[in-house]
Structures are given as C-alpha cells and as structure tokens.
Design goal:
Elements lengths: L8 E3 L4 E3 L3 H23 L2 H30 L9 H9 L5 H13 L8 H17 L6 E5 L2 E6 L3 H4 L3 H22 L6 H9 L3 E3 L6 E3 L6 E4 L11 E4 L10
Antiparallel strand pairs: 1-2, 3-4, 5-6, 7-8
Helix pairs in contact: 1-2, 1-7, 2-4, 2-5, 2-7, 5-7, 7-8
Length: 253
Amino acid sequence: MQPKSLALVLMLTDRILSSPNHMVWELFQALRRLCVRVAESHVAQDDSALRQDAALCVILAVQCVEVFFNVYFRVLITEPAYAHAAEKISADLTSTQCGLDRKIKEWPLLVFGQKLPLGEGAGQQFITLKNIRHKLMHFTSTHETLSIPGIAIHGMADTSAYHSLSAKSAIEALNTAEGFLCEVFKLRGISSEDLPHALLIWQQFSGHFFKRLHVASIHSPLDSYSRCWSAAAPDYKIPRYTRRSPASLPLAS
C-alpha cells in the first residue's frame, strides 16, 4: 500500500500544475523504492544489481536535496520575513551558473542569517555523499596500466568508488538526504519535536530502513514498525525504531 501524497496536482488542457512539494515527494518515493530493490538484491546475493541500484540511490539522493532546495527556498522568499532574499534567490534559480554547492553554502546564510554546518554531523555526511555522487556522475577513465608478470594491460579505469558501493551505501544515502533536510528546518526555527511533521509535508516522512541491511520497508498503515524521534537528544536526526508487533517484514530473513 502506497501512502497518499500530501501534494496537489491539477491537470489543465496543456500543462500539469502541482503543489511545490510534489516533485520532492515523487523523487524521495523513487529513492525509497530503489532502496527496497537494493535490499532485495542483498537477500538474493546479486552483487551486480545491488551496486547498480546503490549507485542510482546515491545519485538520486543528492538530486532530491537539490530539488528540495530549489522549491523550498522559492516558497520561503514569498513570505515577508524572507523577502529580503527574493531578488538574489530568484536570480540564482534562473542562472545556469548556480550549482548545488553555492545553494547549500549561500542560501541558508542569506535567508536565515546562519550557515548550514557542513563540517560536522548531517552536513558533513551530505558533503561526503555529494562527492561520491560527483565521482559517479562525472566518471572518466584514469587510463592506467595494469602490469603482471609477462603482460601489461593498458587503458584501465579506476572504478573503486563504484565497486565500494553496498546496501549500506544506499540506505545511508536516503538517511543522509533526510538528515540534511532536517538541518535546513532547524535553521528556520523548527523544533526537534516538529521535524517529523516538516518532513511529512516536504518529503513524505514515511520510508524507513533498518541497520540490518536485509530489512527494509515502505511505511503504510499495515506496517509493524514505526519511526520514533528522540526530541531531547542532540542527535535527533538519527532515527530510532520500535517494533509494535512480532510480525516480520517481507524482506526480513
């Protein structure tokens, strides 16, 4: 059972208009579906399919964050409290020269007067994820020579970054994207207690994945697991999971 979207979609004669959060919802749902597929490949011990989908998870997780930034900050600058940033952010959104790096470094400071903590916690984790995504998206051959006794093989490419991907990489990509969104919400003044609600509005706070790599689920009213947040803990962004019944998930071994 798929959770119902909190987004609005209106079909016109020649265009489809949606509420601002619609694309963020759609991309995160695609990411969760990929994570389930990675978990299935992990159970089936299909390492090739697992790496392929894990790579897509890394790429899509970063894309989810960029789309969120584009939409969320565009919405914010329509509010009187953030109108001072409207001209700059509107110009950046129409510019082909304003990439994700600039957005995450400049926009929070411009709008909230504070920088995102990119050197620690969820911020640092997202930078690491973004760097892995860069290696995958802009892959090029290192054109190396592999020498073994009696033979030399020229033109080899270093695929270490790709082959290092695992089921854990896929799940962490989703968790990192969610955690990074929470950092933005915190700068806006949203309390730890209200973070789940903020996530629900913007990226469907419903997918949850477990530290055991072969267990994954898309949340629905029928799920036997619930996601809990420790509001008082400073590491609120790390989800804790409680099991409400002994029922096992389809992907659990």
